[in-house]
Amino acid sequence: MQIKRNYLFFPDKEGTEAIGYKSDAKLRLRVRFDKSKIVNFNVGYRVDLKKWSTETQRCKSGTTHSKKKISASEINTEIQRLENLADNVFKCFEVMEYLPDEKEYRAAFNEANGKSTGKEPERAQTFFTIFDEFTRTMGWQNSWTSATFTKFSSIRKHLFSFDPKLDLKTLNEEQMQLFVAHLHKEDMRNTTIAKNVAFVKWFLRWANAKGYYPGNLHMVWKPKFKGTDGNQKEVIHLTWNELMSLYNFDFSQARMKVKDINGRPILTVSGNPKEIDLTDESKKMLGYVRDVFCFCCFTSLRYSDVAKLSRSDVRDTFISIVTQKTTDGLKIELNKYSKAILDKYKDVHFPKNKVLPVISNQKMNDRLKEMGEIAGINEDQRIVYFKGNERIEEVHPKYNLLTTHCGRRTFIVNALFLGIPAEVVMRWTGHSDYKAMKPYIKIVDLLKEQEMNKFNQV
């Protein structure tokens, strides 16, 4: 379920056209959804009308507002927080597949914002209503992304499919083992099942702390899954040479292989792959995708952050952002490559004052594979995973495995390989746990060993 909505931040002018308006005004948020439903909220700041940008719905950079001289950056940060919060409330209703009315949305927004003034309507307490409460509470508190809400929506569906009459008070280890068996029948990889189990245990910990669940499965139930220790994990990334090749690739001369319905190249009479010229629009789009992806490779930004990067986030030598996933405030210095990409689009106008031509995540992932194939990023990549006790090994050309998140991985691997200390890299990426860097350090150690072996070949 998807609820259509839009947000408008605006100064609520005080006065009339005849006698004149005050020079400043209360800042408000208007949420419109389901075509005609409208709810207004007070942002909590006053802004000077001359220093407000109607186009970007933000205070103009470098200004101060009201008699208290509050900086534009402080007000804009609160605007972004409320916009994220408003969206998270909708995502939670979408997970529950429920369309709220104005009163229900206002109450949910205020609760998420820590301003709840009344009790929630009484609902019969079942396993799944409690799971919905967990999703709603944790989603609001932790500013979950759409992807996280989708994960928990999927887990809820799997639990309901397994047993729609689950009862928290009688839940036991045998039921959970049967749930794992149910997931195996869904043909899931062990890594996916392990994540689902971890999320269910998170729910049980929360339910236990709230007094809904009297058991202790969250502490004593520790199922083991082959291939989930991280040793088999392949971190898909571009080497420095691949990155430079892609960065400098000329898509204006690009041609594409013609494939059959099974994805196999169609050959010409001479036995060579048949190729066709791309349309000008396709070449242009591939160039956009390449530039956005490379920008992530040179800055460590996630897709969610590059998608909302606006001109107010960019300074002469660095970008300053509050990340969508973790709400960390990060300062990331620009290098000559990332700066060149920004300069390329500095005179191009994009909606909502964005700095780069970012398309949807799904479309970009599709285009990345096409882009990688045309640019010749076709090194064989081995993928190993387990389903139950079965070890499965697959080999794919690297372009077929490219996703937007590979940009962030590419930044980390190449930064470490260039000798930048892990502590510095973590300041750019926002990683707070050194454990998260271990898979990348392992890759870099292997790369250094391979490079050192070149001396033995001279």
Structural write-up:
- By secondary structure, the chain is α+β, with helices and mostly antiparallel strands.
- It has three domains: 5-112, no CATH class; 127-220; 240-457, hpI Integrase, Chain A (Orthogonal Bundle).
- Helices cover 43% and strands 16% of the residues.
- The chain is built from 15 helices and 15 strands.
- It has helices at 72-95, 102-112, 127-141, 146-162, 173-185, 190-210, 217-220, 240-247, 280-299, 303-307, 336-344, 361-374, 405-417, 422-429, 438-452, and strands at 5-12, 15-16, 20-21, 24-33, 37-48, 52-53, 58-59, 64-65, 70-71, 255-257, 275-277, 318-322, 329-333, 380-387, 390-397.
- The strands form seven sheets. Strands 1-4-5 form a three-stranded antiparallel sheet.
- Helix 1 packs across helix 2.
- The termini are far apart.
- The relative contact order is 0.08.
- The model has no long low-confidence stretch (mean pLDDT 87).
- This is Integrase domain protein SAM domain protein.
- InterPro entries: CB, DNA_brk_join_enz, Integrase-like_cat_sf, Integrase_recombinase_N, SAM-like_dom, Tyrosine_recombinase_XerCD.
The CATH homologous superfamily name of the largest domain equals Intergrase catalytic core
The third-level CATH topology of the largest domain is: hpI Integrase, Chain A
In sequence order, what are the helices and strands, one letter per element?
A: EEEEEEEEEHHHHHHHHEEHHEEHHEEHHH
CATH architecture of the largest domain: Orthogonal Bundle
| Structural class estimated from helices and strands | alpha+beta
Organism: Paludibacter propionicigenes (strain DSM 17365 / JCM 13257 / WB4)
GO molecular function, one term: DNA binding
InterPro entries: CB, DNA_brk_join_enz, Integrase-like_cat_sf, Integrase_recombinase_N, SAM-like_dom, Tyrosine_recombinase_XerCD
Pfam family, one: Phage_int_SAM_5
